[in-house]
Design a protein that fits this description.
heterodimer; A: mainly alpha; about 0% strand; B: mainly alpha; 7 helices
Chain lengths: ~70, ~140
């Protein structure tokens, strides 16, 4: 495995942590989530790399606009 | 051919709807991003599906031009939703670029080219979001 690939894998990990961090912060501040229970969303965001974050974004459009308790 | 008053009003209304933060513009943003992500990997999709008629040289060349198209959702997100949206779109775009750089690209410096693009698009997104916010403040 070349150094480039190692860098890319590290980069993917960092990106996942950045995205997951932003979404978990939103999740913790949000009063209502799809499905009403927050912890499954946290598990999905942390464990399902990229797809989980994308799913959370698609299910909570008001992350970009509107109040967090909406 | 000139546009009638109703048509001008219709276009103006549509543009207003597109540039306001709402569910429509949010899902439009993700639709644009998804279409571009599909386009980015279209060469591989063509290979997998065996669509010989669509095996164009363009889909297998260096993907700098294809990557450049991702500026559209970044700029749109920054203009309509602000800095946070721009950062998130940049991050998910970078995550979409990674598999190509890791497994597909046969060209040198895939990582460097990708990082330079993200640096530029991140800066553009940030500047546009700041500009939009300043404009909104002066209008109030």
């Amino acid at each position: 495995m070349g150094i480039d690939r190692i860098f890319l894998i590290i980069l993917a990990g960092i990106l996942h942590l950045v995205l997951a961090g932003m979404l978990l912060e939103d999740l913790s501040n949000r009063k209502r989530v799809l499905g009403r229970i927050k912890w499954p969303w946290a598990v999905v965001i942390i464990l399902v790399v990229f797809a989980g974050s994308l799913l959370y974004l698609l299910c909570h459009p008001k992350i970009f606009y509107g109040r967090k308790d909406e | 051919m000139s546009l009638k008053g109703d048509e001008v009003n219709g276009i103006r209304k549509a543009l207003t709807k597109l540039t306001r933060p709402n569910a429509f513009s949010y899902y439009l943003l993700f639709l644009i991003w998804a279409v571009l992500a599909l386009f980015y990997y279209f060469g591989e999709i063509v290979d997998l599906a065996g669509w010989e008629a669509l095996r164009w040289e363009f889909f297998y060349s260096v993907h700098d031009v294809h990557r450049l198209l991702f500026l559209i959702p970044v700029i749109y997100a920054a203009y309509v939703f602000g800095v946070k949206a721009s950062i998130i779109i940049n991050v998910i775009s970078l995550m979409a670029f990674l598999p190509r750089a890791l497994f597909v690209s046969a060209y040198p410096d895939a990582l460097a080219r990708m990082l330079i693009f993200i640096l530029v698009s991140g800066t553009i997104g940030y500047l546009i979001a700041v500009l939009r916010k300043t404009k909104q403040r002066t209008q109030q």
